[in-house]
Amino acid sequence: MQILENPFRSAAATIELPDGVPFPSADMAAARSLLARCPEAGVTPLRQVEGLARVSQVHVKDERDRMGLGSFKALGAAYVIARDAAAGQAQGRTYVTASAGNHGLSVAAGAKVFGAQAVIYIANSVPGSFAERLQNLGAEVRRKGETYEESMEAAAAAAEEHGWHLLSDSSWEGYTEPPFRVMEGYLALMDEVFDQMSVPATHVFLQAGVGGFAGACAAAIRAVWGEDPIIVVVEPSAAPALMGSIQAGRVVKADGPVSNMGRLDCKEPSLIALKGLARDADWFCTLTDAEARKLTGALSRFELATSPSGGAGLAALMADDRAFGLTQNARVLCVLSEGA
């Protein structure tokens, strides 16, 4: 595990980004009130786990059964499509995106519920079982490219060619409004946590791919719990897009091999997420594939079976439970972001 203290956290300088990139939303009420209308949008449990690390409390927000889709991602794209439906804009629209995993399921499910169509681009490395899950939700699946980034380029080109609505969970120069809203949907998760924890966490571990989930959660934590909690962002060593950008002080692309943390294996950061995390995160760290495989595999003993992607935050805690200012009295919050 490699770690980096965030130099932008308390400095007056800001990271170099294009003009017009917003900070993440912290409007939890908007997300939760709209999602509450969905009959599948029940609150997921917060579990307290003993013996996982040498700290007094480890709280795990368990997203493995979120809205029947098995991931926190159900809160994002489906929320955006629900907003569009409330404005009378979803019926008959075609939403197109690229996905390395659960974001595509959220787009497909939201489109199905609100009378829209979904076209999902996936890389050649994505398992056929995932393509079948998308198709079972009524989505059209197209394979393009060897990486998530190449699939996203194809999705953006298709949106331009056909007049479809591009709904990415990442943001880049000139494209911020849809992913801003996707991230806003994720805030419902933290709003639930604030109800479930009577005392704020001292440390929060957030796994990141493009960074949308981590950026949204961090913004909510600062808005409600203030500046005291230490926020740690966890990435694959093969795809340290956020950590590399923080080190460079500007946006950089990662250039590593394919990672077994597939949903986190994103080589380019979301600009909105990067802007927010440069302000809100205290530490960035990376895990090797071997570390993620070994440590997340051990979670089954605690009835927390997940993938290397879904348990990366917990794996970082387990890798070194004395890093990041952790002490015996720490109250740690992690998110189990998907099932096995």
Structure report:
Strand 2 (46-48) and strand 3 form a beta hairpin. Helix 1 (28-35) crosses helix 6 (177-196) and helix 2 crosses helix 6. This protein has a seven-stranded mixed β-sheet, sandwiched between helices. The radius of gyration is 18 Å and the shape is globular. The chain has 340 residues and is α/β, with parallel strands linked by helices. The chain is built from eleven helices and eleven strands.
Name the features:
alpha/beta; 36% helix; 7-stranded mixed beta sheet; single chain; 4-stranded parallel beta sheet; 11 strands; 11 helices; 340 residues
Overall geometric form: globular
Strand line-up of the largest beta sheet: 1-10-9-8-11-3-2
- Average pLDDT, all residues: 93
Oligomeric form = single chain
Share in helix: 25-40%
Strand content: 15-25%
> How do the helices and strands follow one another from N- to C-terminus?
EHEEHEHEHEHEHEHEHHEHHE
Uncertain segments = none
Instruction: Supply Rg.
Output: 18 Å
- Distance between the ends: 22 Å
The SS-based structural class is: alpha/beta
Q: What does the main sheet amount to?
A: 7 strands, mixed
**Number of discrete helical segments:** 11
Q: Count every beta strand, where a strand is a DSSP E run of 2 or more residues.
A: 11
Question: How are the SSEs ordered, and which strands pair?
Answer:
Blueprint: E1 2-5, H1 28-35, E2 46-48, E3 57-62, H2 77-86, E4 94-98, H3 102-113, E5 117-122, H4 128-136, E6 140-143, H5 148-162, E7 165-166, H6 177-196, E8 203-207, H7 212-225, E9 230-236, H8 241-248, H9 271-280, E10 283-287, H10 289-297, H11 312-319, E11 331-336
Parallel strand pairs: 3-11, 4-5, 4-7, 5-6, 8-9, 8-11, 9-10
Antiparallel strand pairs: 1-10, 2-3
Helix pairs in contact: 1-6, 2-3, 2-6, 6-7, 7-9, 10-11
